[in-house]
Amino acid sequence: MASLVAHLAAVRYLPRQGLAAKILLPALSLSLGVGLVLFVFFADKFARQAEEDLQNRLDSFLTTQAAELEGAVWEFDQAAIDRLFRSYALSSDLQLARLTDARGQVLAATGRPAPATGRVFAASRELTRQAGQETYQLGRLEVVFNDSRIRQGLAASRSVELPAAFALAVLFMAVLGLTVHWQVGVPLRRLRESLERNAATGQRTPLSWQSGDELGQVVGAYNALLAEVNQQTGTLERANSELGAENLQRRLAEKRLTLYKTMVEATDTAMVITDRDLRVQETNAACLRVTGFSAGEVAGRTVWETFLSDHDAQRVAELGRSLETGAGWAGEWRGLTRRGGRVPLRLTINALAFDGDAASQHVLVFADISEQKATQKLLKSLAYSDSLTGLPNRALFMDRLEREICIEARRGRGFALLFVDLDNFKWINDSLSHAVGDRVLTVMAGRMKACLRSEDTLARMGGDEFTVILRETSEAEVVGRVTEALLARMAEPLDVDGVALEATASIGAALYPADGGDSETLMKNADTAMYAAKAAGGGRLHFFTPVIAEKAQARLDLRKKLRQALARDEFVLHFQPIVDMAGGGVAHYEALVRWNRRQELVAPAQFIPFAEDEGLVGRIGRQVFDLAFAQLRAWDGQGFAATVSVNVSRDQFLEDDFVEDLLGRVDRHGIDPGRVVLEMTESLIIADPAVARVVLGQLIVGGFRIAVDDFGVGYSSLSALVEYPVHIVKLDKSLIRTLERDHRARTMVSGFIGLFQNLGLEVVAEGVETALQHEFLSAAGCDMAQGWLYGKPAPARFAPASAQSMEARLFTRLLREKGGSPAQ
Q1: pTM for the full model?
Q2: Which residues of the chain register pLDDT less than 50?
């Protein structure tokens, strides 16, 4: 300690303001402090480690001695116990050891008085013995250790180590002080004196200092600085002459700024410059025009107090955070006008920063997008609304259906989905016009909307199909009452352009969640129920049931099988003869399609109506043409010349490339189109009069003959036979069937035959089955006849032989039927 005080006294004489003192004193203090802290830290750490070792020795001693004493106590071996306790006295750490039996009586003890200082560590252990399934308490061993030996060792080490530590610290500080004084203090003082002399004389001459250390480098840097100052003096003089040129450039820049300001004022986009707090500093004319404010009214006020709405606090805070980070902001914002109006704005805010500094101002650019919003609203309305009825379209309806499912999944009250389809709407479109059909759809939409609540959803899915969501309505009785009102209102007569019409509807209903938990299942089941209502006659409601689902699945299976039949060419033709009434021979054959399904022939009545509904009849018809033309070609090779009649469906007739496709097939098969009769119904011809005239004209020019099939049912319009180019009229079998028992039918048929022949048309009677029917038609002058009396439809290979034996078979059957009762 004496040496440390002497060193501190020596340090006191160092210059107080010198660099050496400023470096030395903190270094000395830091060294001494660190040394003391380390000494105390490690001394304490060694003490704690010694105590932990003592505790571990105590636990180990207690464990081993308890194990040895358990046997001695169990065997009542007092001599062994005494021998062990005498050995305990040899332990320097042991202060007290005592053994007691299970009743608390002392069996042995050893120890010595505790020292005046130090701590003790005591522990005890139960002595037990296991005998069979029983555990016996033998007694308790108690041991006390004292840490006096540890403390003596620590005290001895401190008496030596602490003075040594202080001595090393003093020696280190003395060496450090002298080194800093001679290496730093003395040279710095000499350098200061040189600079003072230089400053006193006013000269800018370099210092004469020869040294390779840091101070020499400082002097070298000072001399270099003097040289640079001398050089810069000359540069400043030259720069003074350049200021005039700079003034000229500044005036040009001011002129450009004026031009830019004029341009900003002339633009249609509103612009505003604000400070960091979005207080308005500058505005252009477009801003004042859009907002209606004057420049004085907005100057110095924040944009939130003038032309920008702050109704959405979250968005305002979001915008503020974006600007604080230096990022810009762009998007739509609600603007305010001076008169309190609201206008949608397209707003962009960017920070203005000069010379790399933080943003101090902001520029706002915005434009009124009211017209754009109106256009978007119109486009959205067009995208989600039906243009004819104004109802929601399929896209919007499916969105609302999904939303309703989500809502009711939480509430659990359910709802009903209705699928509404107008009955016989196709007839209205085909017979009257599409314009009339559109009027009917509009009226029906209005009637349905009037029967529903405002919270319900009515949509047009397309064509004559409508859908309805009855919210919070999942009871069949309630749905029944609503649909009953709908059906009654829709069935009321309506007048469209002077034409009285009656239109009914078929409704299918599916209930959520009973009939489906998702939109696709609900739509499918409601559609299935609607088809069941239509199949039952229309004008009614059908709820979805598993039976209806089975029938729908059967329709799906039939659709799949029909598609497979088309791909596998499972359709075949049978040919029924059409007899020449005058000569008795075969005039031509009608090609009738059959479905050869697993070696079983399916009649067309079982699949053609379904194919028409599914849009497959056109593909079937094209295969029929190919089969018929190929058979004509084959008969030509056999020397059998024949003419074939082929039925044309409405879907085929209305295809854009029908005529072109038909002529192409005729060319590919190499047959004469004059040997082909195209049979079509009167309703097909008059469905679209303008198109029918063009198509029929193209077919006749192509060489085909046209026949009107099934005359006497449906429309039976004589004017159609006069207006349209046809060659043959086929009387429906319903007229022929009653010839034997109804004189009115005979009069009607005779009149038709004479009328059509006077018009230059050939007449074919269908469904002739008896000799009396044949004789009447022959006497009435009918041109041709067709029916089971002359032959049933048969495969093509039987047609030549059938034609050769036709006259003989017909004569034989006529004789047989005249002699017996007429065949029914």
Answers
A1: 0.43
A2: 1-17, 820-824
